[in-house]
């Protein structure tokens, strides 16, 4: 595993301080799969919890694979053991909807928030979410919801919310949530010479009403030096 602790410190400083009294919600996404977005998001969350002393939620929008939960569970020596599953919603709001809804024995629809669990990581300064896909039945499908309710509710329980979104070439999740959060960081593999796709994704995020903070060059040894840049002005 590549040690990104130095880069995470620089990224933390580059993003700047949040508004006084307001938690920050930061999304990480790449234009194409395979750029290492999940690693960067996870290491940023771990850095914030351990080195910056913040309370952090790592929210995984890859609902069918839940790679963040899987990666942390697979390496308890590095991250610490996972705690038992708890609700990922502080107030019943959520960022997903399951359609058609499941119904209990009384015919009442099962709340969407029931499908998302959270687990404390290690000493509990940070949490990771997992979508309970085993709860889906038949032809049910799940979708990311547009809206600020969940993110605003989570701000009251965390100093930092880190969102790991699937790559834009396989999901619209990043564009769906971008207007309702503070910043989106684009992740680009260091050996990726084509900046057109990240630039197009940047434009799409801005058009959707989001704010693109810049680019993180994963395992960067590129020119110009540095890893968080404004792209194309």
Keywords:
11 strands, alpha/beta, Rossmann fold, 7 helices, 26% helix
Give me the side-by-side strand order of the main sheet. Answer: 3-5-6-2-8-1-9-10-11
- Beta percentage is 15-25%
CATH topology: Rossmann fold
Low-confidence runs: 220-233
What is the CATH level 1 assignment? Answer: Alpha Beta
Largest sheet: 9 strands, mixed
Return Rg in Å.
17 Å
Overall 3D geometry?
Answer: globular
Helix-and-strand structural type:
alpha/beta
CATH architecture: 3-Layer(aba) Sandwich
SS field, number of helical segments: 7
Portion of residues within helices? 25-40%
Q: How many distinct beta strands?
A: 11
CATH homologous superfamily descriptor = P-loop containing nucleotide triphosphate hydrolases
Terminal CA distance:
33 Å
- Kindly report the average pLDDT value: 89
Total number of domains = 1
What is the string of SSEs from the N terminus onward? HEHEHHEEEEEHEHEHEE
Summarize the structure.
With 233 residues, the chain is α/β, with parallel strands linked by helices. 26% of the residues lie in helices and 23% in strands.
Descriptive account of the structure:
- By secondary structure, this protein is an alpha/beta fold.
- It has a single domain (5-229), classed as P-loop containing nucleotide triphosphate hydrolases (Rossmann fold).
- Helix content is 26%, strand content 23%.
- The strands form two sheets. A nine-stranded mixed β-sheet has the order 3-5-6-2-8-1-9-10-11, with helices on both faces. Strands 4-7 form a two-stranded antiparallel sheet.
- Helix 1 packs across helix 2 (37-50).
- The longest helix is centred in the N-terminal third of the chain and has 14 residues, at 37-50.
């Amino acid at each position: 595993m590549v040690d990104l602790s130095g880069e995470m410190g620089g990224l933390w400083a580059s993003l700047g301080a949040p508004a006084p009294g307001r938690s920050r919600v930061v999304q990480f996404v790449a234009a194409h799969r395979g750029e290492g977005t999940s690693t960067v998001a996870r290491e940023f969350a771990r850095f914030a919890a351990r080195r910056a002393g913040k309370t952090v939620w790592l929210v995984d929008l890859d609902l069918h694979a839940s790679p963040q939960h899987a990666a942390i569970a697979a390496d308890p020596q590095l991250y610490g053991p996972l705690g038992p599953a708890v609700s990922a919603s502080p107030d019943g709001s959520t960022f997903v909807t399951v359609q058609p809804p499941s119904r209990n024995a009384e015919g009442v629809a099962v709340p969407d928030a029931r499908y998302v669990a959270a687990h404390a990581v290690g000493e509990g300064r940070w949490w990771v979410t997992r979508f309970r896909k085993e709860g889906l039945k038949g032809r049910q499908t799940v979708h990311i919801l547009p809206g600020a309710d969940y993110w605003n509710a989570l701000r009251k329980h965390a100093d930092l919310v880190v969102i790991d979104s699937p790559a834009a070439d396989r999901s619209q999740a990043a564009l769906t949530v971008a207007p309702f959060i503070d910043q989106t960081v684009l992740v680009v593999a260091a050996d990726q010479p084509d900046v057109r796709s990240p630039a197009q994704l940047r434009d799409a995020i801005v058009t959707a009403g989001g704010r693109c903070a810049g680019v993180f060059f994963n395992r960067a040894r590129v020119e110009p030096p540095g890893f968080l840049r404004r792209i194309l002005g």
